[in-house]
Structures are given as structure tokens and as C-alpha cells.
Design brief:
Blueprint (H helix, E strand, L loop, with lengths): L4 H10 L11 H19 L9 E3 L2 E3 L1 H7 L24 H14 L4 H10 L1 H7 L14 H13 L4
Antiparallel strand pairs: 1-2
Helix pairs in contact: 1-2, 2-4, 2-5, 2-7
Protein name: Type II toxin-antitoxin system antitoxin SocA domain-containing protein
């Protein structure tokens, strides 16, 4: 089954321990969704979602998720804004739940700025931006093919 990037965003938001004070910034959420797509392509040989991922100046960005939060919440997304009628939380199948937990465990401990720097060092973002200066806007798509190729090589090198 194909999902949307916003459904994956809702899963990450629902996984936060908000009662314990956990928060997440839109930038960190973007990177978690990006890495979910990348590793899903490697593990299952198909995309998790079809939403476009673009090579923005702060790293891989899914415009549909960006529009949802409109970058209004730079530091953290308030609990009351996490879900809406348009973007409710729906339980996902257990296999996908397990997969996303792995991604959250691997990348969720890092800050948004660390994940931005990491994703910008990696080939898919760099290839999509080509000769675009780092502080210029860029809406070039990061292709699923480039993601699958790059992260498959990382996996074979034992670096997932």
C-alpha cells in the first residue's frame, strides 16, 4: 500500500512522548520522513510515498509537509497543531510501524541541525542541487533512484 508523506509525518508526531515534554521541529520531521523514504526504497524496493522530495537549502524537503506546517513553528510544532481534520493520525500496519520505529531510533536522537548537515553531505541532495549555491533556493527533485542507489551502497558498506 502507498502512503503519503503527511501520513508518515503523523506517525512520527504520534510517536512523540508529548506528556514528557518531547517536541519536534518541522526541519527534523522533514529529515525523518526523508530517511524513511530512502531506507524504505532500499529495504522494500519500492517507495513508501510518492510525494516529491526537493533539494532545498536546508536539506531534503517534502513540499506537502512544509505546506502543512508552513514553517510557522521553527523550534517545535505545538501539540494542538500536530493533527487536523485534513491530517489525522491513523494507525499503520505493524510491519510499517516496526520499520518507522527503526528510523526513529536511528535518526530521532539527533538534532534537526545535525540531520540537515548529514543529509547535505550525502550524494542524493548534492546531485539534485548540482551547481546551485548552498544559500540559493532550489526546487530540484531528489530522485528515488538516486536515493536507492546511494543508500544501498551505504548498506553494503555496513553503514545503515
Amino acid at each position: 500500500m502507498m502512503y503519503t508523506a503527511n501520513q508518515i509525518a503523523s506517525w512520527f508526531l504520534a510517536s512523540l512522548e508529548t506528556n514528557s515534554g518531547d517536541t519536534i521541529s518541522p526541519m527534523k520531521l522533514q529529515k525523518l520522513i526523508y530517511y524513511s523514504q530512502a531506507w524504505y526504497l532500499v529495504k522494500f524496493d519500492k517507495p513508501l510515498f510518492n510525494d516529491k522530495i526537493e533539494a532545498w537549502m536546508h536539506g531534503p524537503t517534502i513540499p506537502a509537509v512544509y505546506e502543512r506546517f508552513d514553517n510557522a513553528y521553527r523550534d517545535s510544532i505545538p501539540f494542538e497543531k500536530m493533527f487536523s481534520k485534513e491530517h489525522p493520525y491513523k494507525k499503520l500496519p505493524i510491519e510499517l510501524d516496526d520499520f518507522l520505529e527503526e528510523i526513529f531510533f536511528k535518526y530521532g536522537e539527533h538534532s534537526a541541525w545535525f540531520l540537515e548537515a548529514l543529509s547535505k553531505k550525502e550524494l542524493p541532495w548534492r546531485m539534485a542541487r548540482r551547481h546551485t549555491p548552498s544559500l540559493m533556493h532550489c526546487h530540484q527533485e531528489i530522485t528515488q533512484e538516486s536515493m536507492k542507489n546511494y543508500y544501498s551502497k551505504l548498506q553494503h558498506e555496513g553503514k545503515p
